[in-house]
Write a structure and sequence with these properties.
By secondary structure, the protein is an alpha+beta fold. Helices cover 32% and strands 28% of the residues. The strands form 6 sheets. Strands 3, 7, 8, 9, 10, 11, 12, 13 and 16 form a 9-stranded mixed sheet that branches. A 5-stranded mixed sheet has the order 20-19-21-22-23, sandwiched between helices. A 3-stranded antiparallel sheet has the order 4-6-5. The chain binds adenosine-5'-triphosphate (ATP) and magnesium ion.
């Protein structure tokens, strides 16, 4: 990508309305623009990252055996009246009346709608288990939208729903999603910690939140110190294996959100349990027959008995994750993208665009990288050298290749590792060797 062709509206000053690093950096690097309170437009750089995060999440959902669908953002109120949640949901739900005076709502979640899809088509245990998921915009009229995309009113969520014939098999589905979550956060370069959680208005008997540790996080959590360094799963998982022992390993550590924490134990000075803050990036619920009973989503079991299906729901905050990744990966100069989701691997910076020799080296490097399947952004604009270097640090690609008149004279160019800050002077052929040896 040539930067001269890329819409990257950088802000020079820190925006006043932003309090935390991820919000400041997303605005400064032109990833998002606020449209109204808690509602954002995603500009090209933001959209690339949001798509990468969504793709990693969707791929793991499919690996775990679930099916992708797409439900609408607008839902009929009728289904919510059936489940009993239309009144319960309160002011967070955006209610809309259409021209025929029919009650609609902008979906804050999709348990009802997916149950309607299920009950239309599935009648027998023989068609189970089934897990359906989609990635779709949600709307919740939050009391205090803040921290940019972290707590928006309109936000992108991946939500999955499992359907099983009995309790035992519904726990197998829950475990699959638990492990899929550990995998997908890891594939985004993040360390998420599963914690016992409250089920809140969704209801149910079993629930975990997935938390990224960060001082700016809104969630207060309590956990065993050793859990933070626990490596957990390595490599791919066979989702048909018995996953219970792996889930048990994670849940053997003490980790709970504030609502679930047993405060009595903590005040006894249990010094291996710490109080910390984090960002909730995922939340899974096992709620059994809570929705299937009032909504008559029944199946015949193997004894010919017609019973309400067992369900669970599983949410990942895709747009919140963009902020969470930045909270976990930045310094005072800007973002430091982890290799897993970086928009491009290399950033070529031409310190003197218009100079024949600088232009030649840069465009040769650009062609080489493109031909060899490395993703690359080339700053070919006419900005000042200082501004270009600051911009490169701000948008945080893993490697910068800096070409200027001094380098041309000595025939060496700077290769900077954005994360460590280390810079090496390499000749043209040494650079090519580096590209070939480095798997980013
Ligand atoms: P929170 O406690 O942060 O309000 P929640 O428990 O109400 O979230 P869930 O219903 O569990 O949210 O939704 C699943 C996921 O969607 C959450 O884990 C979170 O990552 C994301 N999410 C929820 N609300 C928002 C929001 N207002 N803005 C951005 N992401 C959100
Ligand atoms: Mg939650």
């Amino acid at each position: 990508m040539l930067l001269s062709n890329f819409f990257l509206p950088i802000l020079k000053e820190n925006p006043k309305e932003a309090e935390i690093a991820s919000h400041i950096l997303m605005l400064r690097s032109g990833m998002i623009q606020q449209s109204s309170s808690g509602i954002y437009s995603w500009l090209p750089l933001g959209k690339i990252i949001l798509d990468k995060i969504t793709a990693i999440c969707n791929t793991e959902m499919i690996n775990a055996g679930s099916n992708e669908i797409l439900m609408p953002t607008l839902q009929s109120a009728e289904l919510w009246k059936e489940s009993g949640r239309y009144e319960d949901y309160g002011k967070e739900m955006l209610r809309i009346v259409d021209r025929n005076q029919r009650d609609l709502l902008y979906g804050p979640t999709n348990e009802e709608l997916v149950t309607e899809i299920f009950r239309t088509h599935i009648k027998s245990y023989k068609e189970l288990p089934l897990i359906l998921f989609h990635s779709q915009w949600k709307f919740r009229d939050e009391l205090r939208p803040r921290f940019g995309v972290m707590r928006g009113r309109e936000f992108l969520m991946k939500d999955a729903y499992s359907f099983d014939v009995d309790y035992v098999s519904s726990i197998i589905s829950y475990n699959k999603m638990f492990i899929a979550y550990m995998q997908l956060f890891k594939k985004m370069g993040l360390k998420a910690i599963p914690m016992k959680a409250d089920t809140g208005p969704i209801g149910g008997d079993l629930s975990h939140e997935f938390i990224i540790m960060a001082e700016t996080g809104e969630s207060e959590v309590y956990l065993e110190k050793d859990f933070i360094n626990f490596e957990g799963l390595s490599g791919n998982v066979n989702y048909n294996d018995n996953l219970q022992p792996i889930v048990d390993k994670y849940t053997s550590f003490y980790a709970a959100t504030e609502e679930k924490h047993n405060h009595e134990n903590f005040t006894n000075n249990d010094n291996h349990i710490i109080k910390a803050r984090g960002i909730e990036v995922g939340h899974i619920f096992h709620f059994g027959q809570k929705y299937s009973t009032p909504m008559n989503a029944n199946v015949n079991n193997d004894k010919g008995k017609n019973i309400p299906v067992y369900m669970g729901s599983y949410g990942v905050g895709l747009s919140r994750l963009v902020g969470a990744v930045i909270e976990a990966n930045h310094d005072k100069s800007g973002i430091i993208w982890p290799k897993e989701i970086t928009p491009w691997d290399y950033n070529i910076i031409n310190l003197k665009s218009g100079d024949d020799q600088c232009d030649k080296i840069c465009s040769d490097l650009y062609s080489y990288l493109r031909k060899n399947c490395n993703t690359v952004l080339y700053d070919d604009t006419n900005d000042r050298a200082g501004a270009k270097l600051a911009k490169a640090d701000l948008i945080g690609l893993p490697y910068q290749i800096i070409v200027g008149p001094n380098g041309i004279k000595d025939q060496v160019y700077d290769l900077k590792n954005r994360k460590s800050g280390e810079t090496h002077k390499l000749s043209y052929s040494e650079l090519l060797n580096f590209f070939n040896s480095k798997s980013i």
